[in-house]
Every structure is written in C-alpha cells, then in structure tokens.
Amino acid sequence: MSDPSKTNLITLTRHVFQDQVEHYKEASGDLTLLLTAIQLGCKFVASNVRKASLISMTGLANSSNIQGEEQKKLDVIANEIFVNALRSSNKVAVMVSEEDEEAIFVETQYRGKYCVVFDPLDGSSNIDCGVSIGTIFGIYKVRDDSEGEIADVLRPGSEMVAAGYCTYGSCSTLVLTTGKGVNGYTLDTEIGEFILTHPNIQIPSRGKIYAVNEGNSKYWDAACTKYFHSLKFPVEPKKPYSARYVGSMVADVHRTMLYGGIFCYPADSKSKNGKLRILYECFPMAFLVEQAGGRATTGRKRMLDVHPETIHSRSPIFLGSKEDVEDIEAFYRAEA
Ligand code: AHM
Ligand code: MG
C-alpha cells in the first residue's frame, strides 16, 4: 500500500509521459497510451493470478501451445487479456504472442504504429505451487511506409523502442525501459496504479549469484562446463558463487537486476538453440539489462544484435552483471 502521508505519487503513466516530453519533443503520447493498455493487461492478469486457486483456474486446459507444451488455463486467459487490451488500444499493428503460432495483424480500423511481442504468462510450470511468474513484452515501431507486416518484428532487439516485464509474486512489479534507463513500479492494489518504487535500476558490475538449470550439466558444452566449474571451485582468495534458480525467467532476471550476478539458459546437446524465445523472452530482457548497465550475450554475440529468423526462434542467453557476462564470453572465445 502507498504511504498515506504521500499525496504526490509518481505513477508509471505520469513518469513515462514526463520522460517522453523531456526526451522526445515530437512525442505524440501514443507510446504512453500503449503502455496504459499493457498496464491494464498486467493488472488484470495479476488479479487473476492472485485468485487462481480460489476460482479453480489452475490446472490444464484442453489445449497445448505450438511448442507442444501443456497450456494452463491461466496462460490462455492471460493471452486473451493482452490481445484484447492491445487490440483495443488503437496503437498496435502487429502482435506476436508465445501462445499463438501466427502473428496477429490488427484490423485496419484499429491499427496503430507499434508492434508488441509478448509472453503473457512466463514460467507456467510454477503456477500451481504459487511461485512467482510474470509477463514479458517488447515494443517495436512499424518501419516507415509499413502498415504492419511480419518484417516489422523480425528485427534485431537493438531496434526495440521499449521493453519490460511484470512479476506476479508477493507483489507485482512492472520493470520498464523506453531506452533511457530502467525503472520499476510496484502495483498498489488499493488504488490500482503502478507506483515508482525502483527508480533508475543499476545492476552491480559484479555479482555473487549464478542462475542456471544445473540439471542440464550433462548436456553442456565445454565453455559452460568450465565456466560453471570456475564459479563453484574458484581460485583462492575468490569465494564460490551462490546458486539460485526459480525456473521463472521473470523472477530469476528480476533478482539478477536487483542483486547482480548472472542468469543463463545455454544451448546444449539436447536443445541446440537453447530454450528461450528470442523475440519475447531474450530481447526484452537483454534490452532491460543493458539499459541497467549490464550485459547480455548468446555466448558468442551480443544478444540484441541477433536477427530472429522466425517469430518463435530460440537462442542461448547469458545476462546480468557486466563482469560476470564478460567472463562467460571469455570462456566461449577460448573454446572457439
Ligand atoms: P515457458 O515460457 O513455457 O514458461 O518456459 C520458459 C521458462 C522460463 O521462465 C524459465 O527461465 C525456463 O523456462 C526454465 O526452464 P527449465 O525448466 O528448462 O529450467
Ligand atoms: Mg515463456
């Protein structure tokens, strides 16, 4: 709850609008309005997540997504919430959702100049036990002279104009960049607004925590095997790193943003391109991490320079504190 003695709250909408006016003199306010639709989606999903077990929405729906994974009812609902909020914002031309095989092209009469790529409810294996899950989104502007086509989203992440995620855990925090740093806003459920709580997030240049699915060790390449070994058995006087792995990218990345360290989902002999999707998982997180002073790589290339071949393409990813990510890059260079 917001402090009742504070009557001049900085809401997300107010903050973004001020920022747009300051930095982009020609700003039309359209991005602010689009972000209002995204906030509505996040609030609506947060409310559904909180009520999920009460109103029996957990459990399997009778459908699976294109990756062949079982889809939970909450995934379906979260997807519908975002598609509806974005379509009716009149600011979107193209949508790409993890839950939809094809991109969605908004009807001409509702079409705007932005493209939104999103994972409406990431970390779905954690839903039934109440562990943090989240929404991830990235925003492109349609290219000049385009009415909105697939080429508007099959672009490097460096061309995104905004990206963010929202956590659904003990509280809901929306972390956002519009290319001028990173800010976090926590949902005050009583007044229904995201309030600025984490201004100008900066990732520590080195951390003490690594996050990876250690159960995949058997399948790792030599660079990963040697890197993670170096974290656990460092040369004195260095101390071993702590391991933390929620298995929800939003929760693991949020901790990395605030405490530092490294989050990894490598490629391995079982998953040749890694697991995480470039457009709506890797790019938004890489954009946020770089804007917070950190670094994000595939191991061999800057994450944001990757050119996705398809809307659901995957990539290995390592992101977090600058020096920690530089270490894994050095291990990959040594194995080249
Ligand atoms: P999802 O989109 O099906 O929820 O999968 C993505 C999730 C990420 O949140 C998380 O980082 C990763 O999958 C965990 O995968 P694993 O269980 O293989 O460690
Ligand atoms: Mg996902």
Description:
- This protein is α+β, with helices and mostly antiparallel strands.
- The protein is built from seven helices and 15 strands.
- The protein has helices at 12-23, 30-51, 73-87, 222-232, 249-259, 278-291, 322-334; strands at 60-64, 70-72, 92-97, 104-105, 114-122, 133-141, 162-168, 173-177, 182-188, 193-198, 209-211, 242-243, 262-265, 295-297, 317-320.
- An eight-stranded mixed beta sheet has the order 4-3-5-6-7-8-9-10, with helices on both faces. A five-stranded mixed beta sheet has the order 12-11-13-15-14, sandwiched between helices. Strands 1-2 form a two-stranded antiparallel ribbon.
- Strand 11 (209-211), helix 4 (222-232) and strand 12 form a beta-alpha-beta unit.
- The chain starts with 11 loop residues before the first helix and ends with a helix.
- The mean pLDDT is 93.
- The site of 2,5-anhydro-1,6-di-O-phosphono-D-mannitol has 13 residues, from strand 5 and helix 5.
Helical run tally: 7
Question: Per DSSP, what share of the residues sits in E-state strands of 2 or more residues?
Answer: 15-25%
Q: How much helix is in the residues?
A: 25-40%
Name the hetero compounds present.
Answer: 2,5-anhydro-1,6-di-O-phosphono-D-mannitol, magnesium ion
What is the average of the pLDDT values?
Answer: 93
